[in-house]
Amino acid sequence: MEIKVVQADISQFSCDAVIVNLFEGVKSPGGATGAVDQALDGWITKLIQSGEITGKLSETRVTHTHGKIPASRVIVAGLGKPDKFGLEEVRRAAAASLKAARALKAKKVATIVHGAGVGGLDAKAAAQALTEGALLGLYRFKKYKAEAEENGGEIDELNILERNGQKIAAIQEGVRIGKILSDATNLARDMINEPANAMTPTRMAEIAEEAAKANKLEFYVLDKDKMWELGMGALLGVAQGSVEPPRLIVLRYTGADPGKPALGLVGKGITFDSGGISIKPSERMEEMKGDMSGGAAVICAMKAIAQLKPKVNVTGVIPATENLPSGSAIKPGDIVRAMNGKTIEVINTDAEGRLILADGVAYARKIGCSPIVDVATLTGACAVAIGPFYSGVLGTDPALVDLLKRSAEAAGEKVWELPLTEEYQELVKSDVADIKNVGGRYGGAITGAIFIKTFAEDTPWVHVDIAPTFYGDKDEGYLPKGGRGVMVRTFVNLAQRLAEQ
Ligand code: BES
Ligand code: ZN
Ligand code: ZN
What we know:
Blueprint: E1 2-7, E2 17-23, H1 31-39, H2 43-49, E3 60-64, E4 73-80, H3 87-103, E5 108-112, H4 123-137, E6 157-162, H5 168-193, H6 201-215, E7 218-222, H7 224-230, H8 233-239, E8 247-254, E9 263-267, E10 269-273, H9 293-308, E11 313-323, E12 335-337, E13 343-345, H10 353-366, E14 372-376, H11 380-386, E15 391-395, H12 398-411, E16 415-417, E17 435-436, H13 444-456, E18 461-465, E19 471-472, E20 482-483, H14 488-500
Helix pairs in contact: 3-4, 4-5, 5-9, 6-9, 8-10, 9-14, 10-13, 12-14
The protein binds ligand BES and zinc ion (2 copies).
One zinc ion binds near residues 273, 352 and 353.
């Protein structure tokens, strides 16, 4: 879908469907909606009076125009209550209305920038949110589906209309940023939705390399031999049960003085988590193709960062492997040594994410990253603790935790902090090694984080557990069923905030 910013009046624009909006409680619309209503002899007002249009957030109502304006149809998008209105509501209204336009098989669509008029939002920010809502909301993964089936085709062209010429430049800039962020998020979704027979560690490395080449990022990858040389016994331990070779992918962006330490983004890249010898139950095991969602978030955030060019250095590190049972697989009771020299007793081979992150985080430290943020579909316990709407956040550096929370808020992603205090350390003590990879029945999201903290050592560090949020059971606004691409936008925002410090 091509997005164009056009200086035009929506009631005079020719296309298959125009999108206007309405706040809940408004009885006679003003602005662009009012102009369209007048041209339609008050038809929208009549539908409001009859209760068919309420303006509730994400409501969409379609009317035909019978030649009264050049567009064939009008879609009225509900913006919800004026006092609850912000950028998140713009994203949701855009997603709902563009999906409605697509369902009508509209090819050429026009919309106003929700919020940039009466809504009182900054035009650039509103245009960015509108673009995000549109592109994220229209996302579908249909690569493996036969062409015709139910898809109904795609919208070819989205025209973003603004009458005031002075706002055009700001809207164009918002659209540019929104497109970069949405495309990166949608790439992460594609990577998550790809089956594990396609999205192997090798394929992840190829995608990272393609992103690097196209956007002037530095790229390299460590293979098994190099991992051995560096002593990455934890990552190698997880990989040893699989035929598919592991990869440790590195992407570097230099936006500031190359001597300055880089923000390290470390993403869990388990391309399939069967649990290994501590095998998982088969129910919903297919979702474990998405156990590389953290790695995908890092690769795609790096891509967007390279395009937006904040003045900061950022390095992405993605340890990637499968976790499978076999005659060569790691076993409960085995002891491995991570690259920082620490030994780990493997109690449960299904707690493999923290093993590969031990080496991923130690490697990020070794190459000078500070601070470090890791992201992982780490624990089912995190979802049990906080439910499906939030990602868990835990860290050793309150200022960094706070910065990450603010980045998430700005990006429209939800995170919730869990405690990370000394007493939990006790729970991961091993009788035979420096640490063990499970912490018992309670506080699983926290003991998982405590484990990784051991490898971040004194480097300021934050851990984001996206096990609750990486995958959706159903479509929700601009979040699709399946892979959701969480944390791409938050990490880009974090890099931008660090650039401003
Ligand atoms: N990848 C899983 C966590 C997970 C579960 C993510 C469900 C998303 C949805 C992780 O590797 C795992 O299996 N964790 C175990 C840890 C336990 C053995 C300490 C878990 O959560 O049960
Ligand atoms: Zn696991
Ligand atoms: Zn896992």
